[in-house]
Automatic annotation (TrEMBL):
<feature type="domain" description="DUF4218">
    <location>
        <begin position="313"/>
        <end position="425"/>
    </location>
</feature>
<dbReference type="InterPro" id="IPR025452">
    <property type="entry name" value="DUF4218"/>
</dbReference>
<dbReference type="InterPro" id="IPR004242">
    <property type="entry name" value="Transposase_21"/>
</dbReference>
<dbReference type="Pfam" id="PF13960">
    <property type="entry name" value="DUF4218"/>
</dbReference>
<protein>
    <recommendedName>
        <fullName>DUF4218 domain-containing protein</fullName>
    </recommendedName>
</protein>
<dbReference type="Pfam" id="PF02992">
    <property type="entry name" value="Transposase_21"/>
</dbReference>
Length: 477
């Protein structure tokens, strides 16, 4: 109950848990009576909607509410008697924040995730512009300081930017706005809107309408057909195939991601079927290496910087100084991307990246606050549905049965369960070989194959063994 108070990080500026974030500290300052008792519960409320019937065309959506505690591991129960001291106390609980994806947040809060004011953080000052067929969220040069040279550049939207950065609204102003919002039916339905596809032809027409990047404007051939110049940010057919082959041949630790070899199409021209976690692995681990060879440096550099930014902000430990620097860095990254991609590329999800460092300062590391574990849990709940006429009852019955089996399984001593079974890949004990170069604790996976060395390869292997064995240093010298 009290590990968040007794075991928290004491290094200034280091964030390893939500207790190190500003939101937790501000709550403790405002409600000191609640904070005096470390056994009081801090909760996070997660909600999202999903269709129980898979691909069946039926307008039915369920919205489970999931509470997660930041005091205890989820498998421990909460009682009002401290078994360590035998003392009784008056337990209180508070909801620290809610956890939703962006569409669910829009449905639950009432603040629309579409339109000119889609960003809830920028509020009335959301930088947006209407292009052909959609709304683009550009003009991130507003977040730069006034003397910055990019504010005088016409390469972004054809105009000089003299506006101020978006204002910060206080609690009373936000609550007043929420009070004026109309009542909306909760859920993802037709009134929420439809997703607009980024049409490349219209994206090129946007450039001509804004008077920027004339080299990418649509042209016309002698036969009267529309010609589309090759953009620097797109792969050539040959490089596209090479990049897919690079992804196909990547080898990563077991369990880190899906098998990318099965995600690349047979003709090595496309990558399909990636899940959310696979996209994170692709962005944080693979793109920084794969793009360098197939895109120009001025295009690959901001993309690689964006990948490094996501790798940094998804770390288990964050530093406050690093987040402040990342806030300035991400503005430069988005501005560089605006000089490369057409405005139609910048939907609301691209714009929201600019607020991630400041949100990390408020809530601490993002791993206890993102939707990954809750989306996986909802998939598990979906598997409980046996009677499609009573889906809620099926989920409740399946969850109770799972809890009962989990609780009772702890009393079986000699039965293999998910709590005591060995991992799929267990490293063998260290070898007793005297030579350090052969002391490998790795375990091979898959079928064994016999490899025969030619003369040149055998010389390379011999050279590696001889020059990496400290035991023969005296003989080699």
């Amino acid at each position: 109950m009290t590990w968040h108070a007794t075991g928290k990080c004491m290094e200034p500026g280091k964030m390893q848990h939500p207790v190190d974030g500003r939101a937790w500290k501000n709550f403790d300052t405002k409600y000191s009576n609640f904070a005096k008792e470390p056994r009081n519960v801090r909760l996070g409320l997660a909600a999202d909607g999903f269709n129980l019937f898979g691909n069946i065309s039926q307008a039915y959506s369920m919205w489970p509410m999931i509470l997660t505690t930041y005091n205890l591991p989820p498998w421990l129960c909460v009682e009002t008697i401290d078994v360590a001291t035998g003392q009784k106390f008056n337990m209180r609980a508070m909801v620290l924040w809610t956890i939703n994806d962006f569409p669910a947040r829009s449905s639950l809060s009432g603040w629309s995730g579409q339109g000119y004011l889609a960003c809830p953080t920028c509020n009335k000052d959301t930088p947006s512009v209407c292009v052909l067929g959609k709304i683009a969220y550009v003009s991130h040069i507003k977040f730069l300081k006034k003397p910055h040279k990019w504010r005088r550049s016409l390469e972004f939207n054809g105009e000089i930017e003299d506006g101020d950065p978006p204002r910060k609204f206080n609690r009373d102003q936000i609550q007043a706005q929420l009070a004026r919002l109309p009542m909306r039916v909760k859920g993802k339905h037709s009134s929420y809107g439809v997703v607009k596809i980024k049409h490349t032809t219209k994206a090129r027409q946007d450039l001509k309408m804004l008077g920027i990047r004339s080299g990418l404007w649509l042209g016309q051939t002698k036969n009267g057909k529309c010609s589309k110049p090759q953009a620097a940010y797109s792969f050539t057919p040959e490089n596209r195939k090479k990049f897919c082959q690079f992804i196909k041949g990547v080898k990563l630790p077991d369990g880190l991601r899906s098998n990318f070899k099965h995600k690349v199409t047979d003709n090595d021209t496309n990558i399909t079927g990636l899940k959310s976690h696979d996209c994170h692995i692709m962005m944080q681990r693979l793109l920084p290496y794969g793009l360098q060879q197939y895109l120009p440096d001025e295009v690959a550099k901001p993309i690689i910087e964006l990948c490094s930014f996501f790798k940094q902000i998804c770390s288990a430990t964050l530093m406050e100084d690093d987040m402040l620097k990342a806030q300035s860095k991400v503005v430069d990254i988005l501005c560089n991307l605006e000089l490369i991609y057409p405005p139609a590329f910048f939907d609301i999800m691209i714009h929201l990246v600019i607020h991630l460092p400041l949100e990390a300062l408020e809530g601490g590391p993002i791993r206890p606050r993102w939707m990954f574990p809750f989306e996986r849990f909802m998939k598990k709940l979906k598997g409980y549905v046996r009677n499609k006429a009573k889906p809620e009852g099926s989920i409740a019955e399946g969850y109770v049965a799972e809890e009962a089996l989990t609780f009772s399984s702890h009393y079986f001593q000699d039965v293999t369960m998910k709590f005591n079974r060995p991992d799929r890949n267990v490293d063998p004990p260290p070898l007793t070989c005297q030579f350090q170069v052969f002391r490998s604790i790795c375990k091979s996976i898959g079928l064994r194959s016999i490899i025969r060395f030619d003369t040149q390869e055998l010389k390379k292997v011999t050279w590696y063994v001889l020059y990496n064995s400290p035991k023969i240093d005296t003989y080699r010298s």
